[in-house]
Amino acid sequence: MSQIMTEALVDAGRHRAFALIEEVVEHLAAGPYVSHIHLCGPAAHGDPVPVEGITLAVAVHDRHVADLWQVLDPLVLTDLGAVLPGWQDRRCASADREAVYLIGRGSTLTRLRIRVMPTSMAGCFPPNLPTRLIYGTEPAADRPSDAVPRPAEPGSAPRPTATAAELLVELLCLLHQASDRAHRGLFLESYGDMADVRAALRDLVALSLGETVPGGSWYGIDAALSHTTIGRACRRELRNLVSSLPSGEPAQISAILDTCLRVVRLTAPQVLTELSGQIDSYRRYLDIPADERTLVAAPTGGGA
Predict the structure, then answer these.
(1) What does the alpha-carbon distance between residue 74 and residue 87 come to, in Å, rounded to a whole number?
(2) What is the model's pTM?
């Protein structure tokens, strides 16, 4: 571990995420690609309980950004014990890539957000974002002090559409975040997370059933799901889901998770099979028992 990192984390007050931050940095820095790592958000100022988990900005030698991105999931899953594959947050407005992981330690899950950027942009953050360098040397001082994350360039290759498995991982990460925020009394933010949970489930249903939802909106979804038995069953579950408000209570989170998994079982059962072990671990950390209704076989055929 570098001297910079040691001093930075001691100054930050050795909050409860210290051991995990140290472990993550040591694994990321072990390869040949990483030049700098910054700790971002309240944890950089020593927040003893980071509400949003851990956010790291990882600068990679420019020619190897894609190389690190390719091995990031296996590294975090295998070496750091992530419960789920990374959620590739497509809401990020910059050209940098971000992945969110749920890391199990003890009896809790900690959200780890890793933002991958080229070394040429190391240290370029919005002015209001707290940051602390914890690996590497200070970036060149001649960079503009008001530099911000690079917007995606017009004409650049669009990010690939999410698969059903990726949408399920997104849904699970957002549901954990909604539950955590509700427990902390952040009900409005939790409400926003739940809106994103519903949207991820809507997109998963539309993708799996081959339906088109204009602009990723709810417009036309009732009609799109009215043609088949499976579609109508999904529509009922979605209607039930949108009528619930997040309270953070375990019983409600359990009910929301089971609703989502029943829908996935109807539309993309192969995804549940693929992620069954990870979902079991996720349930254990959230203390949510399995619902047998999420394990029954999906209806055969799509007839009316």
Answers:
(1) 13
(2) 0.81
- Helix 164-183, helix 250-267: angle, nearest 10: 170
Q: Which architecture, in CATH terms, is 3-135?
A: 2-Layer Sandwich (3.30)
**Concatenated DSSP letters for 200-241?**
HHHHHHHHHHT---GGGSSTTHHHHTSSSHHHHHHHHHHHHH
- What backbone phi and psi angles, to 5 degrees, belong to 303? -70, 165
Amino acid (one-letter) located at 174? L
> Using the 8-state DSSP alphabet, how is residue 292 labeled?
G
Single out the residue of 266, 267, 284, 270 nearest to residue 209, CA to CA: 267
- Distance separating the N- and C-terminal Cα atoms of the chain: 62
> Who's near 203: CB < 8 A, 6+ residues apart?
162, 167, 213, 216
Convert the pLDDT of each residue in 171-189 to its tens digit: 999 999 988 888 888 888 8
Q: Which residues pair with 38 in a beta bridge?
A: 57, 133
CA distance 297 to 104: 30
